[in-house]
Amino acid sequence: MSMNGRIPNLKDVADAAGVSKSTASKVLNNRFGKSFTLRAEVRQRVLDTAKELNYRPNLIAQSLTLQSTEMIHILGGHHALSDLGNIYQTAVNHFIHAIDSVSSDYDVTVDMSHHGADSSELPAWRVDGAIILARCTERTTDQIHQMQIPHVVVNGACPRGCYSVVPDDVGGTCMAVDHLNDLGHFKIAYCGPVPPFLAGHSSLQDRHDTFLSEMNRRGLEPIFSSQVTLSSTEQYLKETVLEKQATAILAYGHMEALNLLQAAHALEIPVPKRLSVMCFCDENASRVMSPGLTFIDLGSEKLGKTAAELLLHQIQRPARVTPQRILLPEKLIVRSTTAPPERLS
Q1: Which of 94, 117, 139, 309 could form a disulfide with 304 if both were Cys (CB 3.0 to 4.6 A apart)?
Q2: Upper half-sphere CA count for residue 133 (Cβ side, 13 Å)
Q3: Predicted confidence band at 345 (pLDDT cuts at 50, 70, 90)?
Q4: Cα separations (Å) of 115 from 76, 94, 135, 189, 246?
Q5: Structural domain of 317
């Protein structure tokens, strides 16, 4: 059935099926009740006509008339493309799986776009809830609160009081230093952003500061170097390992750790015999690494599942919502890149 190149609308469906626009709308939106009955063959004719015309409802117009859209929007999907990406990718996957396991009625949309500081990250249509990956613009925050949209911040701060779920980077860093020190390492270096390069996500500051305080608490001198880039990793190892005699390195993330392993191989520094390397990482990302990295698991699967539970709680029981910050413990996973230093072997 030709529409002369234009997108079919609700009136086209109604006219082609021989019913009123109101009847077509009720059929397509499954709105039946005591005040509206319809013969089965007429209902089927409307459905068949909509399918034949390839009709798609206008989400924006539809959402304005519905009390519940059964749509959840994920903001900040561009973080899944950044260096921090793997934790968000896994968290989003498990969030969607957890939502589906409770109700298959919800549709989840993900915004992968970069937005200007003054722009809104909300979609044009109404949503029942939102997940914010790390952060969103101030304008978006204003709109979410004005519209009273249930929401959860994943791996980020929640300045105005709502649900947030974050990994415990302070506890994870303590665990990492404990692991290396217990193996007999006393000269431990940190590979990651250092002052004045700490602007950004809270994990940058938390991991750096906790490493510093934990080393000082043990009476050990922390080894830092300049900002490390892919091209400067070999120079970093020369400074920390060959000159300052570090026997272990804690890396901010898995990309830093992979660069260290590659540079160590080029400089013929054996891992873990001469140098132990560990990092913060998502378990899914660690599975494809060789050699198997010792790492602090950020628990992205638990992040996603917990975020789903918190969001559904707000949507289904809004009167019982008490804003809270959920801090999830991180976990030490020991693999083949850490060992006692050579002199203790």
Answers
A1: 94
A2: 29
A3: very low
A4: 9, 25, 12, 36, 42
A5: 71-167+300-329
